[in-house]
Design a protein that fits this description.
alpha+beta, six-stranded antiparallel beta sheet, two-stranded antiparallel ribbon
Length: about 240
Amino acid sequence: MFQGKQRPSGMEFASCHSCNFGTSAADSVAAYFAKLDRASFDDDWKFKEAEAQRGLLNAIAPGFLDELYDPTTATKTMLPTSGGILVPQLIITANGPLTRAYLKVFGAKMGMALYREHVGEALPLEGEVFVTWSLNVGFRPEISEGILNSLPGLDRLEQGKKTSQGQFDYRFKTDRKTIVIAQSSFHTGLNILSVASSIPGRFSLPSQLTRGGRVCPGELLSAMPSVGGHGYLPIS
């Protein structure tokens, strides 16, 4: 997720082996989307690192790239070049079942991590995380304004002079006992909105946010897509 894998220390929590390694494909998919900055160019470091991930993604998330770049799901449009000339372009529709499954798992992991960070203990098994995401442009104001206006200023990882600013920033609201609502931004490519609560049914995201959904602790592996006809269950 971070440039040259240089991640500031912070928010490292214990995890069982199966969840840690069984959901690593979701982390790689999220990192790929985070670096797909529509303003990046061929010699930009984000573009280069995203391109370098393709081999890994084909190995641990087979079918994801084919789904993402399926020409039958792309939308044709005209976009201006730097010189102002309109040229035909394809807009990728990143809403396939594999994309939804991987980002739902990654978003749930973020919600659980932020709950642990700001409540001080792991989200209990009876708890839940509601999660949604947006790519590149952020969340539509008419949907998220009410939630985001209630959140305080930005937070990030800091370790000496090393900072995650611009690569990972988040805003959050919490009672430090039962709930953490957060918007996490990774570069300019991926935004996660999560609500983690230890009290089921206490809070959910607006119904207009159709991506993502609800995940409970212990359900991460079952939310991962099936690979090669075996492994984890597909998302519904």
